[in-house]
Design brief:
By secondary structure, the protein is an alpha/beta fold. The protein folds into two domains: 197 residues, HUPs (Rossmann fold), CATH 3.40.50.620; 103 residues, GMP Synthetase, Chain A, domain 3. It is built from ten helices and twelve strands. The strands form three sheets. A five-stranded parallel sheet has the order 3-2-1-4-5, sandwiched between helices. Helix 9 packs antiparallel against helix 10. About 3% of the residues have low confidence. It binds xanthosine-5'-monophosphate. The site of xanthosine-5'-monophosphate has 16 residues, from loops. Xanthosine-5'-monophosphate binds next to loops. Keywords: ATP-binding, Glutamine amidotransferase, GMP biosynthesis, Ligase, Nucleotide-binding, Purine biosynthesis.
Length: 326
């Protein structure tokens, strides 16, 4: 549309002004925001942008492959993949506080980026140019909720706003800073990104790390990844992807309850389904999913994921609840 074309043109111009003849890197998370931010910057500075995909080990099933295949196929962008899952897990060991998790994940992200930037610069070789700019897909609601807006309380430090280390070596480029999610999607369409990317449901930067209530471990991640994949598959099969804004699946890793399966007593963990409807994530309502769909999700998760013996539904709106549990 005319307005979106204007936003694209204006942002492209601004990005060119800010970056000049420099180089930039952009972290891809698999989500819409970073993909659209990257595509905008690529439009502005071409192959002086290198995208970095940090596999932090907190992704859902299949997400790493999606970034490595779909996005690159759509844009032809330079992609540099960093496997940092061991570092993230080590840094998160013993950590249970949500804000501590976010800060640690944010810090590790930046470290991984800095490492990647050095590698990219080294690859660029004799040119002697350095990568000075870091592109982030920060949206207006992220800015507001992290206290960056005017007169708002600090609710959660979103990892892409708060939690940056003091020795940050990049200047930030945030072309989506004044946009809401629906506008970002329109910009993505305007830029010709495929609909699987543009209409992907939101997923937080800290990933499954903030959907495990309690310490994040490799084993807990594996359990949650399976449960989440089942829920997503059934939501898609149930035809509710267009009406549900997102549906976090949350593992209550420190909670156990008694169950019975076959002839045996079980003592397993619950997962929470948190399906919500929303316009922009600032407010949300719990989604009234069909009971049959909820039943299929519950049956499959408890049958297929041995450690989970209970599935519960979150029926809280935002406010007072936030969408994520941490
Ligand atoms: P809350 O839980 O604050 O979430 O109601 C609002 C929206 O933001 C997503 N979210 C994040 N996205 N980095 C992100 O990029 C983060 O640290 C983060 N925390 C929450 C959440 O999934 C929801 O869509």
């Amino acid at each position: 549309s005319w307005t979106m074309l204007n936003i694209v043109e204006e942002q492209t111009e601004r990005i060119r002004e800010q970056i000049g003849g420099g180089r930039a890197i952009c972290g891809l998370s698999g989500g819409v925001d970073s993909a659209v931010a990257a595509a905008l910057v690529q439009r502005a500075i071409g192959d002086r942008l290198t995208c970095v995909f940090v596999d932090h080990g907190l992704l859902r099933k299949g997400e790493a492959e999606q970034v490595e295949q779909d996005f690159v196929a759509a844009t032809g962008v330079n992609l540099h993949v960093v496997d940092a899952s061991q570092e993230f897990l080590a840094a998160l060991e013993g950590v249970t506080d949500p804000e501590d998790k976010r800060k640690i994940i944010g810090r590790e992200f930046i470290r991984a980026f800095e490492r990647a930037a050095r590698e990219i610069t080294a690859d660029a070789g004799a040119h002697g140019e350095s990568t000075e700019f870091l592109v982030q897909g920060t949206l207006y609601p992220d800015v507001v909720e992290s206290g960056g807006g005017t007169g708002t309380a600090n609710i959660k430090s979103h990892h892409n706003v708060g939690g940056l280390p003091d020795d940050l070596k990049f200047q930030l480029v945030e072309p989506l800073r004044w946009l809401f999610k629906d506008e970002v999607r329109k910009v993505g369409e305007e830029l010709g990104l495929p609909s699987e990317i543009v209409w992907r449901q939101p997923f937080p930067g800290p990933g499954l790390g903030i959907r495990i209530i309690g310490e994040v471990t490799a084993q807990r991640l594996a359990i949650l990844r399976e449960a989440d994949a089942i829920a997503r598959a059934e939501l898609t099969a149930g035809g509710v992807d267009q009406t549900v804004w997102q549906c976090p699946v949350v593992l209550l890793a420190d909670v156990r309850s008694v169950g019975v399966q076959g002839d045996g007593r079980t003592y397993g963990h619950p997962v929470v389904l948190r399906p919500v409807t929303s316009e922009d994530a600032m407010t949300a309502d719990w989604a009234r999913l069909p009971y049959d769909l909820l039943a299929r999700i519950s049956t499959r998760i408890t049958n297929e994921v041995r450690e989970i013996n209970r599935v519960v539904l979150d029926v809280t709106s935002k406010p007072p609840g936030t969408i994520e549990w941490e």
